[in-house]
Write a structure and sequence with these properties.
single chain, 204 residues, alpha/beta, Rossmann fold, 5-stranded parallel β-sheet, 5 strands, globular
Length: 204
């Protein structure tokens, strides 16, 4: 167990992740038995701006200033893959981020296709939460589904649409992390990248 304070500064593209991402990060810290962590409020940046030359670099530069040198932690970038291939776009974004601040640990994660796909990968654990039906099954195409938000709306039983700003954090708090890792390669990468930020070693 690392006794030094862990600091993670992050950038996201969606308003729902502003509250949901810190929930996931704190849960992962708890799993790692890290009790002293500074999970900073995510920095919201439009996806189009991030992928354009200079946009990601500016965000990483700003966030790197919040992460103390020589301490565990680093800069975490989490965006939706949408129609891009994570295996192609992810490494190119990471290379740019590392080049911007090579003195800080940096990780870039593309949720395939959406952040909400991570919830679908562990759907049975979310039954009854945020208006969802009690019995849910993992869709066969959870990592390639184009409208995960629509799936969540369709499986609600309260007649209300899925609202990321209101519902995303509650689902992040309830999702079974191990089940999501088992069924989502991009969520597994997210967990491994958080391990890297904490320890400096790539998680298995």
């Amino acid at each position: 167990m690392n006794q030094q304070r862990v600091t993670i500064a992050s950038v996201v593209e969606g308003e729902g992740e502003i509250s949901a991402l810190p929930v996931l990060l704190r849960r992962l810290m708890y799993q790692a038995q890290i009790w002293d962590a500074d999970i900073q409020p995510p920095f919201l940046v439009d996806r189009g701006r991030l992928v354009r030359p200079g946009g990601l670099e500016a965000a990483v530069e700003a966030l790197a200033r919040r992460v103390p040198a020589d301490y565990p932690g680093g800069v975490l970038v989490v965006i939706d893959a949408d129609d891009d291939c994570p295996a192609s776009l992810g490494p190119s974004l990471l290379a740019r981020a590392v080049a911007a601040r090579p003195d800080r640990r940096t990780a870039v994660v593309l949720a395939n296709r959406e952040f909400e796909a991570w919830f679908l990968a562990a759907a049975p654990s979310l039954g009854g939460r945020a208006g969802l039906a009690e019995q849910l099954e993992i869709p066969a195409n959870s990592e390639t589904l184009r409208d995960c938000k629509g799936w969540l709306t369709h499986h609600r039983r309260d007649g209300v649409r899925y609202r990321p700003r209101l519902d995303q954090a509650a689902l992040a708090d309830g999702v079974d992390l191990d089940l999501a890792r088992a069924n989502s390669a991009s969520f597994d990468k997210f967990c491994r990248d958080v391990t890297y930020l904490i320890t400096g070693k790539r998680g298995e």
